[in-house]
From TrEMBL:
This is Acetamidase/formamidase. InterPro entries: FmdA_AmdA (IPR004304). It comes from Tanticharoenia sakaeratensis NBRC 103193. One of its GO terms (molecular function) is hydrolase activity, acting on carbon-nitrogen (but not peptide) bonds, in linear amides.
Length: 357
């Protein structure tokens, strides 16, 4: 049997009818949650472009370098008691007209530009080796070299108290700065750690664990040039973005990436011609599925099952798809620090003849 397409057919270029600007303000952000009952911050039509600000909740690790007046306003006007049950600042939600449960949102990420030349990594108490390394938290501030597209550690400092209040602001001029990672340069690859639609649940849903709605997937490949497909769970989708990063490794083992605010340009296209259970990623080279679970074993099986579905839905027999995944499917750990463990599986698109509509 011939496989004609390894995933939902990539749609044609859609000429946008409008370009929307969505700034991150106290009125357009929600801190730590998705909520199906939220009023939208923006309403768009299928195909519209959105230029949105995504703020890192770790900007307070060095507010002099990573915050501006507008961000200080978000911090001031969002009470600590309202930053719950998760930690991420989400911009949105965006209501897509005519989007109904079961439809798909095709989100084409077109550009991600760092807002400042600095970012922060926190070795946090939820990190994989926190107890092994003395049960202490440590911040490393990185500086971007835009010309070289790399980041280099500027300094580091230890934090005496656990990161328990989202958006904690420390006073780096008063901290004991230490030299870190001398001479080491990290490739910069801006991406969104957290984005997704509102789950069909009552009340606030934490941004910390990833799920079928998207959320805190933490896959560094969700950057400019990538397309994500999210299954709509409530009318309008109520799509939000947040948790911006400028670099992260698979695993994210210390607890965070290099957290840094981004300006994000993306296009949302409403798709009613196919459905897929879990967040699906398309890159120029690969199709990537995501599995989540309480253990890596469960997450790996979820990813395998969804990739099997992706291939069998497009024409392969179950036996052929299973063989192909073993000989050509690449499985890796996405992250181990978000409550739910994350595993992704990718398969190269150029192995198959692709038909486009």
């Amino acid at each position: 049997m011939t496989l004609t397409c390894t995933a939902p057919p990539t749609g044609p270029i859609v000429v946008p009818r409008a370009l929307h600007r969505l700034e991150a303000t106290p009125q357009t952000t929600h801190w730590g949650y998705f909520d199906a009952a939220m009023a939208p911050a923006l309403m768009v039509d299928s195909g519209d472009l959105i230029h949105a600000q995504a703020l890192t909740h770790h900007a307070g690790d060095d507010p002099a370098l990573m915050m501006d007046d507008a961000m200080h306003r978000v911090w001031r006007e969002t009470p600590e008691s309202d930053r719950t049950p998760g930690v991420h600042i989400m911009t949105g939600p965006i209501f897509v007209r005519d989007a109904k449960p079961g439809d798909m949102l095709e989100v084409r990420y077109l550009g991600m530009q760092p807002r400042f030349r600095f970012g922060s990594n926190l070795a946090a108490h939820w990190g994989q080796l926190y107890e092994d390394l003395g049960a202490r938290e440590r911040v490393t501030i990185y500086e971007l070299d835009e010309g070289a597209n790399t980041a280099q550690a500027l300094y580091a400092y230890d934090v005496p108290d656990k990161y328990l209040i989202p958006g904690r602001i420390t006073h780096c001029p008063e901290c004991d700065r230490q030299r870190a990672l001398a001479g080491v340069r990290v490739p910069v690859r801006p991406h969104l750690g957290t984005a997704g639609v509102a789950p069909d649940e009552t009340g606030r849903v934490s941004t910390v664990p990833p799920g079928l709605h998207g959320g805190n997937i933490d896959n560094w490949r969700i950057g400019a040039g990538a397309t994500m497909y999210y299954k709509v769970q409530v009318d309008g989708g109520l799509f939000s973005i947040g948790d911006p990063h400028i670099s992260q490794g698979d695993g994210e083992i210390s607890g965070t990436a290099i957290e840094a605010s981004l300006d994000v340009l993306f296009q949302i296209i409403l798709r009613k011609d196919f459905s897929f259970r879990s967040p699906l990623l398309e890159t120029p080279q690969n199709w990537i599925v995501h599995g989540f679970g309480d253990t890596l074993d469960i997450a790996a099986k979820e990813a395998s099952r969804d990739m099997l579905t992706l291939l069998t839905d497009r024409g392969l027999s179950t036996d052929d798809a299973y063989s192909l995944l073993s000989v050509a499917g690449d499985m890796a750990v996405t992250q181990v620090v978000d409550g739910k463990q994350g595993v992704h599986m990718r398969i190269r698109r150029d192995m198959f003849p692709i038909t486009r509509t």
